């Protein structure tokens, strides 16, 4: 029997500034363990807004979000920060690495913050994740010296360091050339085969069609 990792029910999102605008209308979504799901739609359809609600980064909405059986809607910011670090990995279009830190140090940061392992174990785990991304040879280089594709692979390693239940990615190939896009798609497919649960917002039809499931959005609603 499939294990449900994420369940969103009747999500409604309204922006009030500079003028009132409703961007999500009663959106419901369920994702099981090991699924690789892509969310597609034209710009302005609400897909990135939905991802931010699912990630708990945006808490101003109606409806409920449940992750790993825990309803996260209504938790305070301290509780949400702890929950995110334990259960959610993030990959964004802009990798948000600290340029003066090495690739290894960037990957280690979420695990050091979590405090589940000692520093030596965290470094070992970080090297293992970089090895998985074929980036271990660049571990001691400042991330600001790496190419865009290399930085994105480091960002994926960072997202994996705490063994999250859910990996969320927002346009992760948006700034990559075709070769690096293909590499990132392959990484996500392999992670899903290993049992990771992945939700990716993308404009890239090739990426979307190689996922297990495509969720199509239009005008703030799931339409297919």
Overview of this structure, please?
The protein is an alpha/beta fold. 35% of the residues lie in helices and 26% in strands. It has a six-stranded mixed sheet. The chain is globular, with a radius of gyration of 17 Å.
How would a crystallographer describe the biggest sheet? 6 strands, mixed
**Count of β-strands:** 10
Euclidean distance between termini CA atoms:
24 Å
Mean pLDDT: 90
What is the rounded Rg? Answer: 17 Å
Write the CATH architecture name: 3-Layer(aba) Sandwich
CATH topology: Rossmann fold
Which structural category fits the helices and strands? alpha/beta
Question: Which superfamily, in CATH terms, is the homologous superfamily?
Answer: P-loop containing nucleotide triphosphate hydrolases
How do the helices and strands follow one another from N- to C-terminus? EEEHEEHEHHHEHEHEE
Gross geometry: globular
Describe the strand arrangement of the main beta sheet, using strand numbers: 6-7-8-3-9-10
CATH class: Alpha Beta
Percent range of helical residues? 25-40%
Total helices: the number is 7
């Amino acid at each position: 029997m499939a294990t449900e990792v994420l369940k969103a029910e009747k999500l409604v999102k309204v922006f009030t500034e500079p003028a009132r605008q409703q961007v999500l209308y009663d959106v419901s979504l369920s994702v099981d363990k090991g699924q690789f799901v892509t969310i597609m739609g034209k710009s302005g359809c609400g897909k990135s807004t939905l991802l931010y609600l699912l990630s708990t980064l945006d808490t101003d909405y109606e409806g409920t979000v449940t992750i790993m059986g825990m309803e996260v809607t209504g938790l305070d910011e301290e509780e949400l920060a702890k929950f995110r670090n334990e259960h959610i990995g993030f990959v964004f279009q802009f990798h948000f690495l600290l340029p003066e830190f090495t690739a290894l140090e960037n990957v280690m940061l979420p695990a050091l913050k979590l405090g589940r392992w000692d520093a030596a174990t965290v470094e070992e785990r970080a090297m293992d994740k970089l090895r998985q991304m074929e980036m271990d040879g660049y571990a001691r280089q400042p991330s600001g010296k790496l190419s865009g594709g290399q930085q994105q692979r480091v960002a994926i390693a960072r997202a994996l360091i705490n063994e999250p239940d859910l990996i969320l990615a927002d346009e992760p190939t948006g700034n990559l050339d075709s070769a690096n896009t293909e590499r990132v798609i392959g990484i996500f497919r392999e992670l899903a085969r290993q049992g990771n649960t992945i939700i990716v917002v993308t404009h890239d039809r090739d990426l979307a069609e190689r996922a297990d499931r495509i969720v199509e959005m239009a005008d703030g609603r799931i339409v297919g």
